[in-house]
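In pairs, describe these two lines:
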Amino acid sequence: MKSQAAGCLFLILAATPFIYYLLVLFSTWRFFGDADKRLSTDRGFTPPVSNLKPLRGVDPEAYENLSSYCRQDYPEYELIFCVGDESDPSVPVLEKLKRDFPDRQIRILFGSGRNAINDKVAKLVRMVNEARHEVLVINDSDVRVGPNYLRTVVAPLRNPKVRGVTCLYLSTEDKTFTQHLQSIGMICDFFPGIFVARQLDGIKFAFGQTIVTTRACLKAFGGYEAIENRPADDLLVGRYIAQQGYEVELLPYAVRTVPDYDSFQSLFIKRLRWLTVMRHMRPWGHIGLTFTQGLPWCLAVLLVHPSDGIGAAYAGAYLLFRLVITWLVGVWGLKQRGLWKKMPLIVVWDAMAFVIWLLTFGRRRIRWRNVDYRIRDGMLVPVTPNPAPNSWR
């Protein structure tokens, strides 16, 4: 009797990811269902904008990425770039931008004037201080946008309750196995989790690909100065805006990023670093991922019930849910074409994600730009004293 009860309990626990998958489907439907309404822009709401971009080195297709910000259908905005010094490889690209777009307000700043572990954030401290306008749009250097970008991401600020805006991001073009794997992982795993978080608790984070806020909101929590030695600065900005009682809006709109994963190992290490940081920032949420991972639970049921049909039923339900979720997010929501070709990679991604999740437990170190750090009380502490400043991405 006890073994029978234990077996039933095991099957119930193994079915919990299916409940999560149902919540994903509902949350995704809610997120994209009113996309047209949420993306309607107010042509009369165009406050002056300062677009801030910290740079270090040259990303692939750098000119194409940066020049997209010079082609905005927006009446008044400035572009501020900050690099380490005049020898940075991105400087010739920035000088070409100034020559090719003489009518744009483009400023290039050299150096942050600060000594911080997170050099990207140190540069943002200076750029915020030197920005001319109250509304700030902040984005990573590898992001490419369309001409309607500024109108779209600034529009939610017309609601005085909204003081933070962020959006989704997709790859410009996938060429390698690793890049295809990363893209399918975002669509089948990362975005669904974000939609569930939004449905249950609202958006209390932001993505570095787009952060829209105001100088006043940043100043209220101490500005970027307060987080220049902490990981996941983009997440923290969204969290601190929400803690002020404002809403952070996640738009059903995607910018493009140029893939920079040159190997499976680089993707694995970057995911391990990111998930380790998340474990330290959201420990209970990290443990809760136990009940969102259908693949290991279904494999366990298959081992216990290899021939009575129960294991096959669980495996079939897992595959069906994962396919439907990926279709709903990628095809229906994000209008991605040819996604069916990538769907066999869902199982590969889920297996990798489970292994990485296991490896994060007890892990206190991350490797970032070839330097090792410990995470201690939410701060980055270099293992080797006085490492060179780095840029978080």
